[in-house]
Automatic annotation (TrEMBL):
SUPFAM superfamilies attached to this UniProt entry: Glycosyl hydrolases family 6, cellulases (SSF51989)
Span list, region Disordered: 354-379
Active site: 92
Descriptive protein name: Glucanase
Species name: Pelomonas nitida
GO molecular function: hydrolase activity
EC number: 3.2.1.-
Enzyme class: hydrolase
Length: 430
């Protein structure tokens, strides 16, 4: 568990202390294992000495302490710590909310390699951390943008593509981290509402294969452990009342929601990806993690039975599947745990990659110039998007109202549940 996340949760605990039920919900969240986002060069050192955020070494040391505390009869047990590697130059090329600090035009790729990846790799390689299992989720949204957002009027993505910025940056990261035995790399592969269409998945298989092959001289596809889906998104694991059949996905019927995308949920997406990647030459060890931090969709608006119209029975209540910013009516999803699905042994874990309560982007439409971290207003986070909550701070900042909404709408519910990550508390998934 990340002590910095726990401190944010403690702030919310203060704010709800007059309500016993909210206090209980927040107490549950204090035990969530969440990923640490290395979202800028300064995140490596942190600023703990001056009361600021923990750095990479602080986090690894905290993990060692927690691992020791959980030892059984003096024997250390496997212990996982999760990081998101997220600082490519010209980051978030198809949107504005999370543009980062590095620009390719300003030597960003060189800085990414030497001041960011090299430093991370050096620290992770320290023998002191050999007992930890270090999970890395690599550069959310970046390569998926190369697959689908080039040549469609997103000029920042066109530039990054022409200059090969993301490809060179990600290959560098894969190459460096592939030498570390206890570092498990998961490349971000968006979610079913983005790459789920047959043609997009086909592009993804070819594209990722090429990307990974070019990362090392061996060309091995086995350097990654696998892929991470649904990072920071809201797409459900399972739509309980239907599959992606013609009547559900057709655009001519009662709904436009799935637009002929038969991957109506993350489990369907992962099943298809796994089969197709292995058929394309990836090793049988290829595995997945799914971000379930905010895809629970509990709450009053959740349909509870099959209905004639898919819009009346989908638990994903968004107006459009592409909406990604501080989405209303969402809740905490399946609790993080390893090997969550005995029928799908290729799912390594459900994970809370996006820390629930961290904003996706500011709703303040006047924040049009990037702040020091490259964060600014994206219309997807503003009042013209019916799905976006108002009152949101910049991406990554604590958003108390969203946090409380997520806890209240958790599915499975947080009330009265054991939160042990090793226990299955879940509903059955198909
Ligand atoms: C932000 C990052 C933040 C992450 C996790 C992203 O949207 O850009 O700065 O660390 O979310 O909350």
């Amino acid at each position: 568990m990340d002590p910095d996340y726990q401190a944010k949760v403690a702030m919310s605990a203060q704010m709800v202390r007059s309500s016993a039920s909210d206090t209980a919900l927040v107490a549950a969240a204090a035990k969530f294992p969440t990923a640490v986002w290395l979202d800028r060069i300064a995140a490596i050192d942190g600023a703990k000495a001056t009361g600021g955020a923990m750095g990479l070494v602080d986090h690894l040391n905290a993990a060692l302490t927690q691992q020791k505390a959980a030892a059984v009869g003096g024997v250390l047990q496997p212990f996982t710590i999760q990081f998101v590697v997220y600082d490519l130059p010209d980051r978030d090329c198809a949107a504005l909310a999370s543009n980062g600090e590095l620009l390719s035009a300003n030597d960003g790729l060189k800085r990414y390699k030497t001041e960011y990846i090299d430093r991370i790799a050096e620290i992770l390689a320290r023998p002191a951390y050999a007992s930890l299992r270090i999970v890395t989720v690599i550069e959310p949204d970046s390569y998926p943008n190369m697959l689908t957002n080039v040549g469609v009027g997103k000029t920042a993505c066109d530039t990054v593509n022409t200059k090969g910025v993301y490809v060179e940056g990600i290959r560098y990261t894969l190459n460096k981290l592939s030498t570390l035995k206890n570092v498990y790399m998961y490349l971000d592969i968006a979610h079913s509402g983005w790459l789920g269409w047959d043609n997009n998945r086909a592009k993804a298989i070819t594209g990722f294969k090429d990307l990974i092959k070019g990362a090392t001289t061996s060309g091995s596809l086995g350097i990654i452990r696998g892929f991470a889906t649904n990072t920071a998104n809201y797409t459900p694991l399972d739509e309980p009342y239907f599959d992606g059949t013609d009547d559900v996905v057709s655009t001519g019927g009662t709904t436009q929601f799935y637009e002929w995308n038969r991957a109506v949920d993350e489990l369907t997406f992962v099943d298809k990806l796994r089969t197709e990647f292995v058929a394309a030459g990836f090793p049988q060890t290829l595995s997945f993690i799914i971000d379930t931090s905010r895809n629970g969709w509990g709450g009053a608006k959740r349909p509870t039975a099959k209905a004639a119209d898919v819009d009346d029975m989908r638990i994903d209540r968004r107006a459009h599947r592409g909406n990604w910013c501080n989405v209303k009516d969402t809740g905490i999803g399946e609790r993080p745990r390893a090997a969550p699905d005995s029928k799908r042994t290729y799912i390594d874990a459900f994970a809370f990659v996006k820390p629930p309560g961290d904003s996706d982007g500011t709703s303040d439409s006047s924040a049009t110039s990037p702040n020091a971290d490259g964060k600014r207003f994206d219309p997807m986070c503003g009042s013209t998007n019916v799905d976006a909550l108002s009152g949101a701070p910049h991406a990554g900042s604590w958003f108390h109202n969203q946090f409380m909404m997520l806890l209240r709408n958790a599915s499975p519910s947080l009330t009265g549940q054991s939160l042990s990550i090793n226990k299955t508390t879940s509903k059955k998934v198909k």
